[in-house]
Amino acid sequence: MSEKKIIAVLGATGAQGGGLVRAILNDPNSEFTVRAITRNIGTEKSKALAALGAEVVAADVDDVESLKKAFKDAYGVYAVTFFWSHFSPEKEIAEVNNIAQAAKAAGVKHAIWSTLEDTRKWIPLNDNRMPTLMEKYKVPHFDGKGESNHFFTDNGVPTTFLLTSFYWDNLIYFGMGPKKGTDGNLSYTMPMGDKKLPGIAAEDIGKCAYGIFKRGSDYIGKTVAIAGEHPTGSQMANTLSKVLGKEIQYNSVPFEVYRSFGFPGAEDLGNMFQFKHDFENYFCGVRKLDESKKLNPELQTFEMWATKNKELIPLE
Ligand SMILES: NC(=O)c1ccc[n+]([C@@H]2O[C@H](COP(=O)([O-])OP(=O)(O)OC[C@H]3O[C@@H](n4cnc5c(N)ncnc54)[C@H](OP(=O)(O)O)[C@@H]3O)[C@@H](O)[C@H]2O)c1
Fold first, then answer.
1. How would residue 2 be classed by pLDDT, with cut points 50, 70 and 90?
2. Short-list 55, 22, 10, CA closest to 204
3. Distance 80 CA to ligand 1 centre (A)
4. Kind and range of the H or E element at 222?
5. Which atom belonging to ligand 1 lies closest to the Cα atom of 19?
6. What's the angle, vertex CA 94, arms to CA 132 and CA 39, rounded to 5?
7. Is the dihedral of CA 304, 305, 311, 315 positive or negative?
8. What is the helix (H) or strand (E) element at residue 249, kind and residue range?
9. How confident is the model at residue 182 (pLDDT cuts 50, 70, 90)?
10. Residue spans of alpha helices (H) in the chain
11. What is the phi-psi region of residue 110: left when phi exceeds 0, alpha when psi lies from -120 to 50, beta otherwise?
């Protein structure tokens, strides 16, 4: 047991980190053991991780000294930040800097940084097809992550840059599920037109990350992009209709309409969908399904995910 290499996992009580924790601890032959990082070791979620066999420690991505302690003697670090808990790219950038500095100080052998594209490389701020947000960003929750990649390279941390995809779990937990219109019909709203949206079961991100750690140095210094499938909006609506046994229409709205929905982050998400729509070839092209499946043989398709989670998808 003590010979196992420690993987320190940020966001261990959440979607991505939790998936990695379970992937490692459910593998009795794993060469790794888990150090689950939480801000509060006393919560039910933290206790559940301890019961699974994880070492549970407290740290906060806003406190670099706490991260240095949490990463001490770790072989690997799974690095993820939490944009939607504060909506600030500047805060997210500072947090990635903290993580990279702490990984360097601890002499970590392999970090996986859960990043996303800096969309300004495709759509410069002076490109008016979509509004500039917060003065410096097109898609704030993407751009801050992409802009932060250099902290790992600058600090010489052996890193894999993991480009993730839209979680299908957003249909359950992020208010993105089918909704009843004034006519009483259910529809699934997304401003993607007829373009494909790479998606993934959140749990599979952690399983892919485990696949990367298992391959030792193969993926160090590399960027890997993962997805479970690239369905269009109408394919997703058809699958939901089939799995839920209810007619669900695909309601593709214009980007401006989506941006104007008024919920927190609506403009950011409207721009995100537009980026994925306008650069479909790039965005789908890098998110290779065969490579994702190689990392995680249990990789789910949208239909597999929907079938497994159909009781949890709220139908308003
Ligand atoms: N939703 C999507 O489709 C999607 C797709 C790609 C990427 N992402 C990105 O995924 C990231 C979030 O990851 P996730 O979905 O795995 O998160 P999550 O499920 O919301 O979990 C976040 C966990 O992180 C911990 N946490 C929050 N603030 C922290 C802090 N200051 N220091 C240390 N730990 C903290 C919390 O644990 P404790 O309360 O136990 O501390 C929480 O359980 C976001 O940045 C988002 O942009 C999302």
1. low
2. 22
3. 7
4. none
5. 16
6. 120
7. negative
8. strand 248-251
9. confident
10. 15-25, 44-52, 64-71, 89-106, 140-147, 149-154, 170-173, 202-214, 233-244, 255-259, 266-278, 280-286, 289-295, 302-309
11. beta
Task: Render pLDDT for 214-266 as a digit per residue (tens, 0 to 9).
Answer: 999 999 999 999 999 999 999 999 999 999 999 999 999 999 999 999 999 99
Residues in the chain: 316
Question: Which residues form ligand 1's pocket by a CB distance below 6 Å?
Answer: 11, 13-17, 38-40, 45, 60-62, 80-85, 141, 164, 166-167, 170, 174
Only one residue has tokens 């790219």, namely 89
Atom number in ligand 1 closest to CA 11: 24
Instruction: Look at ligand 1, atom 40, and give the residue with the nearest C-alpha.
Output: 38
Residue 310 in this model has a pLDDT that exceeds 80: yes
To test the pocket of ligand 1, the residue of 82, 208, 287 to mutate (highest count of ligand atoms within 8 Å of its CB) is 82
Do the Cβ atoms of 178 and 313 come closer than 8 Å?
yes
Tokens standing for residue 150: 């250099």
Of 153, 14, 176, nearest in space to 82 by CA: 14
Is the distance from CB of 155 to CB of 297 less than 8 angstroms?
Answer: no
